[in-house]
Amino acid sequence: MSTLNSLLSKNQQRTICSQLGSVKLKLLYKATVHGFTGAAFHQQCDNQSPTVSVGYNASGYVFGGYTKQPFSQSGQYVNDDQAFLFGLTGGILQKYPITNSAYAIKMIANCGPYFGESLVLVNGSQPVTHSNPQSYYKFNPAEMHGNDLNLTECEVYLVEESTELETPWRNVIWESGKRKELMESIKNYKPPDSSVSQARVLLIGQVGAGKSSFFNSINSVFRGHVTSQAISGSSPTSLTTQFRTYSVRDGRGGKPLPITLCDTMGLEDSKGAGLDVDDISSILKGHVPDFYQFNPAAPLHAEVQGYRKSPGLKDKIHCVAYVIDACKVSIMPTNLEDKLEAIRRKVNLLGIPQLVLLTKVDEACPLVKEDLRNIYKSGYIQDIMQGVSTKVGVPLSCIVPVKNYSGELELDLNCDILLLSAVIQMLRFTDNYFDELSDRLGSTELKD
């Protein structure tokens, strides 16, 4: 038989897998290929576990269940305290856990996946769903499947452990000597233009992605202990309401390092909320003063106190870093993607290099949470980064994963190396900015 094609999109598979750990899905049974019968289902799926069963209907609903128990035709109930049903809408998974684990799964020969008496796919060897939300799983049927019980497809996937890549796809030296080398490179950096003493990097990202936390983390590395100068935390709306420029210092009371991180109000997907796209242009061109109070309802104008009417090269942005939460890439709202695209166009017009800081990688992947050194051995993180590349429109080489300090009290060598490597990339991109500026000026002079 030819290779089975999954009806679940890559993003939908990632969303389901995010509930199960570092795993991947392998398609075992597809009703439109093997048949809408209990016999066909059992032939493909018996004695295999754990599995995810998925039903599809003509109303566009995607729903199903997970069990760690292998299917059989015993006619008996099987205990599974980890079983759950789910509905999958717009990249978001609504989970309905088992309420009585002794009746989680029933092994019926004439049906497909049989979750207690609550949800049966391919019921009675027909392309239909049996639904009883008052049984051993509690759910809202209108929310889960729209009360459309006719199946257009049913698939069952084997849940497999995600195999760690044999060799990392980027090489990193995880040693204290490397941390020292990176720190020295940053301290000794000098922008190519003598009128500029610090590279100015603008951090742009969704609310809660970790912009302020990134500055705090870099500051912590050079202070030698975890610090929290910039306001950061969890909130549905932006905790940063002002334009702030932060200089990292070489230790307590030390001189400022040759990089300034510019923090902005967080992006929000709703219109008229969060950072206004029109304010971005003013920031990029150096017009916005430090401590400027953002107003989503009214973009910055020239009459605002402190507005720089004739900004110098040192006031302009030399590199833009989009800060993106690795856990939310697959569910990024379309409106937010549109905002990022609008910003990217403005940045491109000004010839400013762009990169992506992919944050919270440890929360996104259990393999990385176990050991941060697995970051480039994780196929899952690699897939996320490829997804970011597509959504944001930057090459994979311009995406750098980091883990910010959040609940830690002490520094971690591996965390520091990823953070410092990100700063090095920012400085390299700043050099690219000045190269581009030089080329543009040269081209203008030739025309003149």
Task: Describe the protein.
The protein has 448 residues and is α+β, with helices and mostly antiparallel strands. Helices cover 30% and strands 22% of the residues. It is built from 12 helices and 18 strands. The chain has helices spanning 10-17, 31-34, 38-45, 141-145, 176-187, 211-223, 277-284, 334-349, 361-364, 366-370, 379-393, 413-447; strands spanning 23-30, 51-57, 62-67, 77-78, 84-89, 92-97, 105-106, 114-115, 119-121, 129-131, 151-161, 199-205, 242-249, 256-263, 292-293, 319-325, 354-359, 399-401. Helix 5 (176-187) runs parallel beside helix 12 (413-447), helix 6 crosses helix 12 (413-447) and helix 7 packs parallel to helix 8 (334-349). The longest helix has 35 residues, at 413-447. The chain is elongated and about 80 Å long. The N and C termini lie far apart (68 Å). Mean pLDDT is 90; it is low at 234-238.
In short:
The chain is of the alpha+beta class. Helix content is 30%, strand content 22%.
Summarize the SSE layout with pairings.
Layout: H1 10-17, E1 23-30, H2 31-34, H3 38-45, E2 51-57, E3 62-67, E4 77-78, E5 84-89, E6 92-97, E7 105-106, E8 114-115, E9 119-121, E10 129-131, H4 141-145, E11 151-161, H5 176-187, E12 199-205, H6 211-223, E13 242-249, E14 256-263, H7 277-284, E15 292-293, E16 319-325, H8 334-349, E17 354-359, H9 361-364, H10 366-370, H11 379-393, E18 399-401, H12 413-447
Parallel strand pairs: 12-14, 12-16, 16-17, 17-18
Antiparallel strand pairs: 1-11, 2-3, 2-11, 3-5, 4-7, 5-6, 8-9, 9-10, 13-14, 13-15
